[in-house]
Amino acid sequence: MKKAILIITCIALLASCSKEVVDKMFSFTQPANFPVATYHFNTNEITKAKFELGRKLFYEPRLSRDNTVSCGTCHIQSAGFTHHGHDVSHGIDDRLGSRNSPPIMNLAWRTSFFWDGGVFDLDLQPVAPIINPVEMDETMDNVLAKLRAHPTYPSLFEQAFGTKDINEERFLKSLSQFMVMLVSDQSKYDQVKRHEGATFTASEQAGYELFLQHCNTCHREPLFTDESFRNNGIGIGPNNDEGRYLVTLNPADRYKFKVPSLRNLSYTAPYMHDGRFLNLQGVLEHYANGVKEVAGLDPLLEHGIPLTPAAQQQLIDFLKTLNDESFIKNPLFAEQ
Amino acid sequence: MKPYIFLFIASIVWMGCSKDETPNFQENKLAPLSIEFDNIVGNMNLQLNTGEYTNSSGEKFSLSLLQYYISNIEVQKADGSIYTVPQDSSYFLIKEADPLTRFAKVKVPEGEYTSLRFVLGVDSLRSTMDISRRTGVLAPGGGMDDGMYWGWNSGYIFFKMEGLSSAAPVDPSGQHKFRYHIGGFGGYSAPTINNIKTITIDLRAGGVAKVRTGRESNVHLMIDIAKFFDHTTKVSIANNPTVMFSTYSTLVANNFFGMFRHDHTEN
Predict the structure, then answer these.
(1) Which range marks the domain in which residue B203 is found?
(2) What residue of A is the nearest CA neighbor of B246?
(3) In this complex, is the C-beta atom of A249 within 8 Å of any C-beta atom belonging to chain B?
(4) Do B153 and A118 count as a contact with CB atoms less than 8 A apart?
(5) CB-CB: which of A43, A112, A138 is closest to B130?
(6) Residue from the list A116, A118, A141 with its beta carbon closest to the beta carbon of B141
(7) Number of structural domains found in chain B
(8) Which of A203, B118, B139, B150 fits A168 for a cystine, CB–CB 3.0-4.6 Å?
């Protein structure tokens, strides 16, 4: 009898252990060449069950009014989690948005979200597309009601949170778990920087030096953004999007937009907040010759960036070393 | 150096204050206090959709939606001592369409209270807290129509009022609709508008609140929407049919101070 109890206790211990071990093994990994992540893991510790629930929710069309649009609709993995080929995204009923869908990667280092930085906590980010009439046009209450009535979500929430009770916090934190795990740190650039055996070609190296000289102030490595809001002289678009001003109401912020990361550029065209440039040549041509002297233009761009066609090509060669193919092909991030 | 000295003195003064306050309250003898938010327009009771009103600009209007946050409730005795309701129990969303939300019910120590203070809106600290601290009425649960949360610009809508008026231009939905969504907690990473308003109500003329166990003192407030349209700023529906996150909203929010009036207390 005693033996049996002992064995049962052992099994129980082992079972509880193994679940913890699995969860421990599955965690956020800080890339060696990145600064410390800023996401608040202390209030949302990564676990496998929560991550997998978040992934399922990310690809869940029930988040939209007529169950047609998921997060993954406009954030496609093979396109670096953007809406490749769309200047602005079309959401529910093919309604058009006003801005280019930004890539979802390395969000654990972001201090604000959206082109205007209107959201300051990743946990609150999903609310915006869900209730936006041109994106998902749904209410949070309805989304939760649909998930509660679903045959599998209550048990998935139970596995993740220990309760079948589906609420805003658990829903949003699951989505955050999936999104913060979307770390892109396996580009050739990263392998060079971490001395993992890769080396730049002569052209890439020349491009890197040009980058450090002309671009690194705003597109600061290794994340390739300094998280600031700037007016880069592309001029006012047809919809007169005032960018950061809409959030701060500070006139100095008119037409400023978040400096985007340069990682995975090959997968995320078109470029700028309204997707006006179809390719990198167009972007570099803008900086070389097209910067408009508008009010609020970033002082660093007053004279544009002098780049010969040869220098532009070197820069593009370097920028391509920021592509991370393993990121856009990682099956862990794909719809299951 | 100077600011530190000031802070040091201030903290001593503050400590001194709080020490004095404690003996005035028996926090283990809490009793119910109810605050009733009775929405009116001038001399008329507010009736959603069916009621017809005229503002001081001579514009006729009806209301289809009215809701606002009340939070951070404090009560004060004649001797000046103040009791602050624990913050987690001090958030209320008053919705004209839902009679159950007409009362903000809190528990305060037994005693006689001569004034009342609360925030119209949601304080900035709570507006930036982890989502786990925003449950109940603070959960960003609604949608575009009845929701009280700006998804694109993280923050609560403190006061939301919509209705119809021939003075309003036709909107894309074909209605002569006006929309007032007032919020703004001051900004997270960059300063911006702050429309958090602290309302103080003197209860002495209309009747002090006598809070004791076994009874529910009810402070009956009238919230006059006519004052929304005219207190320190005259708001014309024709000129400003839509006011949301904008600098003009700060003028509108100052009108909030004129809206609240103590009618009577039921002890």
Answers:
(1) 28-266
(2) A249
(3) yes
(4) yes
(5) A43
(6) A141
(7) 1
(8) B139
pLDDT at A23: 53
What is d(CA B164, CA B159) in angstroms, rounded to the nearest whole number?
A: 17
In whole angstroms, what is the distance from residue B243 CA to residue A316 CA?
46
pLDDT at B5: 42
CA nearest B140 in A: which residue?
A: A140
CATH assignment of A188-324, among 3.30.750.24, 1.10.760.10, 2.60.120.260, 3.10.110.10: 1.10.760.10
Contact assessment for residue B26 and residue B59, using Cβ atoms and an 8 Å cutoff: no
* Contact state of A120 with B154 under an 8 Å Cβ cutoff: yes
| A41: CB partners within 8 A, 6+ apart | A28, A180
Structural domain includes residue B22: no
B151·A119 Cβ contact <8 A: yes
Q: Is B192 close to A249, i.e. CB distance below 8 A?
A: yes
Task: Tell me the per-residue pLDDT of A37-96, one tens digit each, with 9 for 90 and over.
Answer: 999 999 999 999 999 999 999 999 999 999 999 999 999 999 999 998 888 888 888 888
Instruction: Determine the distance in angstroms separating the CA of B91 from the nearest CA of chain A, rounded to an integer.
Output: 17
Residues of B in contact with A134 (CB under 8 A): none
Domain ranges (residues) in chain A: 33-183+327-333, 188-324
Shortest CB distance from A40 goes to which of B130, B139, B190? Answer: B130
Q: Would the CB atoms of B131 and A169 count as touching at under 8 Å?
A: yes
Q: Does B23 map to a domain?
A: no
Q: Which two tokens stand for residue A272?
A: 């700028």
Task: Evaluate whether residue B210 is within a structural domain.
Answer: yes
What is the CB-side half-sphere exposure of residue B127 using CA atoms within 13 A?
29
B145 pLDDT band, cuts 50/70/90, is confident
A-contacting residues in B 222-261 (Cβ below 8 Å): 245-247
- Rounded to whole angstroms, the Cα distance separating B96 from A7 reads 62
DSSP codes joined into one string, A60-109? -GGGSTTS---HHHHSBGGGTSB-TT-SS-B-GGG-B-SSPPPP---GGG
Class of domain A33-183+327-333: mainly alpha
Asked whether residue B158 is assigned to any structural domain, the reply reads yes
3-state secondary structure of B176: coil
DSSP state of B42: T
The answer to whether B102 touches B36, Cβ cutoff 8 Å, is: yes
What DSSP state is assigned to residue A273? T
| Nearest chain B residue to A117, by CA | B153
Q: Which of B153, B181, B247 to mutate to test the interface with A (most CBs of A within 10 A)?
A: B153
Q: Which residues of chain A neighbour B150 with C-beta distances below 8 Å?
A: 118
